[in-house]
């Protein structure tokens, strides 16, 4: 309206002048809007462009690192695939470890685990006097085991609970460390496949651990008995024990807050309940780990001859795959009935893994390797599959070994399909015939 008034008051311009005026004299209001909106739009466009570049850059970075992680894992899986195709077939992943327990938390039940595992269920602090009464003054007749930690006694607690009471050797710092590690770990780790810690005693200089009682002793007692009182294990029972142990290690490696490396998994540390169901025990040498790919712990080499993984023995570097190797040795013991190292055997047969590994891919030779006390009472198909699992577990290169989850998933169908003709309880005869050794 203002613009029209200004034009009316002025002298009427010619058409050419009016045209010239329209070309060279812009509307002041229009000019103001142009100068106001152009910079604003320019800033908006620049902002949008920068945002897009930032998003693309972040996406590229994320893709780059995820691609590197994928390639690393894929490389390991491709190696494992070569072995698994040869021996039986698994899916493979990778995992690692490192840490150490807090010593103050060990003695006072500090809670450092995840919420679901943080409660020390049923845990109790015992006095030395209580455990002395429970074991009849540590009567030698109540001794049920003797290991590196010390003697293990059968005892009856004040509430009538039968327990296994483990007494620490007073000499040396190693026993003290093992005591603290076991209390720390087992106060937070709860699984039906791990022996339960009922409590402990740290009364003055006394150090004792109180565990649930496993009436059928250790797997070693039944596979390699030193006397005639132990029952032999049939094929079905051996398969169930293999699965129970695998689930125990799977829990430690993959279902605890941090991976736990057992470091001393062997037949004597596998205990059997009244139904011959197996549980993993003895965590004195255990190490905590991290979730880093290819992560490892460098530590002093500890363990038992015949079970120690090659890379651990040579370099002191231990991972969860070191436990997998130990598990493979136990599988070979379940299959063959042989001990890991036997100097009484002929050259070439003294080390179980070295002797067995070349034979595990030959079906006829696998049949010849079977523990003679089984007397042919097993499924040939199941035997071949278990032999394949053992073969990949004891590979000399750690990356070729499967994860315990893979082992569990491979064993579950075998246990489910156990033939009804194979009895589910151990053999009832009381002694085994040991093949003569030249």
UniProtKB/TrEMBL annotation:
ATP binds at residue 166. CDD domains: STKc_IRAK. The keyword ATP-binding applies. Keywords: ATP-binding, Kinase, Membrane, Nucleotide-binding, Serine/threonine-protein kinase, Transferase, Transmembrane, Transmembrane helix. Residues 138-415 form the Protein kinase domain. It comes from the Eukaryota. InterPro entries: Kinase-like_dom_sf (IPR011009), Prot_kinase_dom (IPR000719), Protein_kinase_ATP_BS (IPR017441), Ser-Thr/Tyr_kinase_cat_dom (IPR001245), Ser/Thr_kinase_AS (IPR008271). One of its GO terms (molecular function) is ATP binding. This is Protein kinase domain-containing protein. It comes from Aristolochia fimbriata.
């Amino acid at each position: 309206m203002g613009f029209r008034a200004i034009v009316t008051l002025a002298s009427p311009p010619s058409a050419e002048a009016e045209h010239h005026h329209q070309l060279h004299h812009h509307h002041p209001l229009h000019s103001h809007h142009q100068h106001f909106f152009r910079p604003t739009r320019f800033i908006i466009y620049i902002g949008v462009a920068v945002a897009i570049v930032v998003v693309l850059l972040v996406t590229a970075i994320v893709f780059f690192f995820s691609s590197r992680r994928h390639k690393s894992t894929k490389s390991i899986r491709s190696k494992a695939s070569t072995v698994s195709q040869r021996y039986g077939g698994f899916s493979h992943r990778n995992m690692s470890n490192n840490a150490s327990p807090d010593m103050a938390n060990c003695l006072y039940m500090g809670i450092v685990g995840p919420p679901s595992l943080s409660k020390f269920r049923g845990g109790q602090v015992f006095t030395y006097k209580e455990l002395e009464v429970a074991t009849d003054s540590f009567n030698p007749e109540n001794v049920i085991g003797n290991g590196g930690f010390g003697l293990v006694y059968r005892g009856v607690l004040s509430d009538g609970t039968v327990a296994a009471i483990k007494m620490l050797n007073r000499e040396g710092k190693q026993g003290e460390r093992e005591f603290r590690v076991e209390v720390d770990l087992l106060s937070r780790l709860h699984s039906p496949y791990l022996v339960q810690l009922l409590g402990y005693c740290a009364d003055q200089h006394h150090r004792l651990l109180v565990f649930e009682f496993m009436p059928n002793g250790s797997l070693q007692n039944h596979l390699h008995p030193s006397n005639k009182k132990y029952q032999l294990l049939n094929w079905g029972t051996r398969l169930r024990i293999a699965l129970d142990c695998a689930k125990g290690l799977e829990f430690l490696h993959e279902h605890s807050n941090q991976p736990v490396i057992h470091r001393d998994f062997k037949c004597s540390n596998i205990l059997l309940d009244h139904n011959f169901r197996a549980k993993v025990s003895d965590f004195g040498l255990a190490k905590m780990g991290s979730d880093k790919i290819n992560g490892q712990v460098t530590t002093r080499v500890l363990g038992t001859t015949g079970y120690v993984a090659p890379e651990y023995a040579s370099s002191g570097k231990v991972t969860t795959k070191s436990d997998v190797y130990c598990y493979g040795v136990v599988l070979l013991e379940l299959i063959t009935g042989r001990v890991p190292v036997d100097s009484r055997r002929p050259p070439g047969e003294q080390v179980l893994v070295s002797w067995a590994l070349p034979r595990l891919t030959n079906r006829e030779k696998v049949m010849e390797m079977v523990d003679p006390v089984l007397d042919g009472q097993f499924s040939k198909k199941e035997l071949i599959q278990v032999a394949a699992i053992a073969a990949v577990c004891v590979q000399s290169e750690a990356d070729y070994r499967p994860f315990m989850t893979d082992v569990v998933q491979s064993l579950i169908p075998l246990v489910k399909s156990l033939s009804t003709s194979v009895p589910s309880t151990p053999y009832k005869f009381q002694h085994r015939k040991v093949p003569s050794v030249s």
